[in-house]
Amino acid sequence: MTIKILNLYAGIGGNRKLWDGDIDVTAIELNPEIAKIYQDFFPQDNIVVCDAHQYLLDHFNEFDFIWSSPPCTSHTSFAKLCALSQDIKTGNHIRKPKYPDLKLYEEIILLSHLFEGKFCVENVVGYYTPLIKPQKLQRHYFWTNFIIPVKKFKCDNIKWGRVSEWEKKLGFSLDDKIINSRKDQILRNCVDPKLGLHVFNYAFKEKQLTLGDL
User: What is the C-alpha radius of gyration for the chain, rounded to an integer number of angstroms?
Assistant: First the structure.
């Protein structure tokens, strides 16, 4: 049976890279330039350029598995650091504080209570105690309706490095891509493909675990 998958905020498809089998993937990406790169890497997928948050609300009941990676910028420790940073001479804040983007929790609540399939909402480990308890794997929080066993992935811990290093570790080459966005940022936003496969396997391919198994 074909598994219908919705891949939200798809980027260039780090999480999706190693998924295989009888799958039908619809990927949602707002940035047309990034969406074009995704389509080049995964020509078999249906790529839609639009607002992923609204698309989820309108179409969530059409899929068997949903992966969502909402923007993480407002949840990071760096966001808190920027909000607290002051100019040494004036004492004034350098950047204005921003509200954390709570669309993240809107999606978790929607999927937890209204969606009948398997889902995974992924985000960065934030600077505050999560409003809804997640599972944690390295630099990620995961909100799911299945258990993901803890496993370490080497390249998932890299914060800095050359573009070539990221390309090698993630298995993507952007050499032939003309990109206005920063290549290093695009690659750092990728979920490690091995981690993406690990999550997918425990949603569908591996024996489902219970809390008592951990």
Answer: 18
Tokens representing residue 150 in the block:
């803890």
Domain 3-213 has CATH 3.40.50: yes
Report pLDDT digits (tens) over 105-144.
999 999 999 999 999 999 988 888 999 999 999 889 999 9
Please tell me the distance from the alpha carbon of residue 142 to that of residue 125, in angstroms, as a whole number: 9
CA 195 to CA 12: how far, in whole Å?
Answer: 15
E strand intervals along the chain: 3-8, 23-28, 46-48, 65-68, 118-124, 135-137, 140-144
- b/e 137-153 (16+ beta carbons within 10 angstroms → b): bebbbbbbebebeeeeb
Strands 65-68 and 118-124: parallel
Give domain limits for the chain: 3-213
